[in-house]
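Recall the central idea of this unit: under ordinary conditions, the amino acid sequence of a chain determines the structure it adopts. In this exercise we apply that idea directly, starting from the sequence alone.
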Amino acid sequence: MLALLFIIAFTLAFFITPTVIRIYLKHNWVDDPKTNKHAKVTHKNAVPRGGGLVIFGAVFLAALLFLQIDKHLIGILLGAFILTVVGTLDDIYDLNPKIRIFTGLAAALAVVGSGIGIAYVTNPFGPGVIHFDQPQLIFNLLGEERSIWILSDLLAVFFILWNMNIVNWSKGVDGQMPGFVAIAAAFIGILALRFAGDPSQLQTAELAFIVSGAFAGFLIWNFYPQRIMSGYGAGSLAGFFLAVLAILSGAKFATTVMVLAVPTADAIFTITRRLLAGKSPLWGDRGHLHHKLLDVFGWGRKRIAIFYWVTSFSLGVLSLVLDTRGKILAILAASATVFFLLVWAKLRYTHKQRVV
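Accordingly, the structure predicted from this sequence is:
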């Protein structure tokens, strides 16, 4: 059944994409490097940015047809719809990043408002789990006693927003982001299958394979030479879905951070670098790992994309066999490697500038 869901979502995304491309080209909604002179731009030709519509369309249709509709799924799809609308507007008008932060918050709140929160995490320092069910805000609404788990919900909102942004930052070259997101979603789905006796975990696994299939189907059109770009829509949806799936699968943060170790380390380094330079962490530049691999180390676009896929796949395999402490060590090792590459790239660039 899970393989079928993957194939259906893959097929939907594959056939939706050409229609989106035609619509964007007809209205000239393209990212043209001749007019968009931003330093982060790496593509050479005008390309439409309509990935958000493709991903949302494929996930929405597959979920509507094959998943049980409950308040959690409604909250997830509502949040995804918000991101898709904002992403489509960004494709056309290039919205201010501050606007995207607030709309991303709205999407995260839609999920948390449906009852999805981080109730606990595995204790990395000993047996058992760390609970986040206190403090609670208890109140009456429509004659029923209800409660808000304050810490649980705040952590969920932060985790969703964080992943939306770090994954969105790692889409600089053709095929880079859809590939590692499809892999990450599949591994979260496999992990959820370990608890398939729980109906909610089976639904989580089904949604994970739908998301994986949607990004894999989109990848066919986004791989080099790309005929459509992810845009903010697909980039934010990628992090959004992965974060929500991690929470639904029993707060498997170590696994999720592990398969996203490279984008996560790159994001931490980037934020730190921008803050130390007195710049806003929200505004893009040409300092991400994929930029350095392209500009300083001379890697091609295909090679960069495949590097992200292979690292995510390798870390995903390890996540299935390592315990929590082992996962943390693997995350630290992967992060150290990324930091080393970025520092090395900086030193090489500085040396080259002095020689010139």
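DSSP finds 13 helices and six strands in the chain.
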